[in-house]
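Entry for arabino-flavin-adenine dinucleotide complex. Fields follow.
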Amino acid sequence: MRTQVAIIGGGPAGLLLGQLLRVNDIDSIIIERHAREHVLSRIRAGILETGLVNMMKSVGAGNRMEREKLVHTGVNISHGNTMFRVDFKSLINGHVTVYGQTELTRDLYEARDSAGCATYHECEDATPCDIETDRPYVAFRHKGAERKVYCDFIAGCDGFYGPSRQAIPVESRIEYSKTYPFGWLGILSETPPVAEDLIYASSKRGFALCSMRNRHLSRYYIQCPLADSPDKWGDDMFWDELKRRLPDFAADKIATGKSIEKSMAPLRSFVCEPMNWGRLYLCGDAAHIVPPTGAKGLNTAAGDVHYLFNALCWHYHDNDNESLLAYSKKALARVWKTQRFSWWMTNLLHRLDGQPEFERMMQKAELSLLSENRAAQEVMATNYTGMPY
Ligand code: FAS
Ligand code: PHB
């Protein structure tokens, strides 16, 4: 088999890249490890920056999102029983879009099907090969048969545990990593959200987040010990703990109900440099991971896709490789800004066991500054709604 761009990974980064290439007459094949149903069973991000929304529209995959999305012009931050709002619209005329990653991924699959593009599911042992030559290929096994896709470029969109990052020689990779001593236990419930906007809650008992997918589907998270499994947390136990971390008005009005999904996510900050090697280009979680506090994981992947797609268009349509040569540096410049913001929000809002008193006072001072200082709120609003590409 042969294509122009072989994409390893059929998650949001791989699918979005494939669609952008398709509408610009550049051929791609997606090689995905899991069945489509498995990919679409994942419950992950829920907040989209405008750059990602615009890319979805540009590839014709934005119609359902336009019908079903919510537009949020701010977020609430609570600390104990007090709460303040960071108003993106009045501060920077900004907003974010609330629309689940699962639905976005579904829309991209449907757009790819309509375009008749090749997507191989349940592929085993996908491996980027000969990436330092001008005839790279991806070897993989599909339905028991050994396959090879020869291509001009390989896009490694295979997430944190995929093979692409490992294809960069270990002696040439610099990996920056920070793990947090807690995780997020998340539930999805068919209940109306507790508030119009998200509530990021910092409390003596730990962090909590009140989010949503639409007006009938709520998404809640609580900070919990890494050792905790979702099975340990029955629904009533979860709701009781969530209420203890929210301001009284929210705890009193929250609509509880049966969870239809419950999962535990560890928190990690990670960056791999460089983000390309020869004809292999990494996008999304294959190259970097952020704690979900700043809602940046999916949105940072979108930034990478924007840069790589444009660089590939320059190559194929203008025979200009400058942008491909600059891809890693350009993508990393934005990656590190989202890393900083996610790290800052995580440290601001979570509670560490045995936290030195001085660190606790710094958290309180930072929250106090954010609650009353316009400049501090503008910086948060600019980062949360999305740094420019
Ligand atoms: P993905 O991991 O989504 O997709 C990679 C794809 O590659 C997968 O489909 C995988 O099956 C495939 N793959 C892996 N190995 C392969 C192989 N060997 N061969 C072929 N295919 C292979 N971000 C937020 O902004 N907010 C959140 O609340 C949030 N919650 C999250 C919760 C969890 C549990 C996780 C893991 C992540 C969360 N994220 C969140 C981050 C998440 O949304 C990612 O940033 C986003 O999925 C990135 O998309 P991709 O880079 O496409 O990676
Ligand atoms: C979500 O709705 O899943 C969500 C929202 C905001 C975050 C993280 C997750 O910061």
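NOTE: The longest strand covers residues 174-189.
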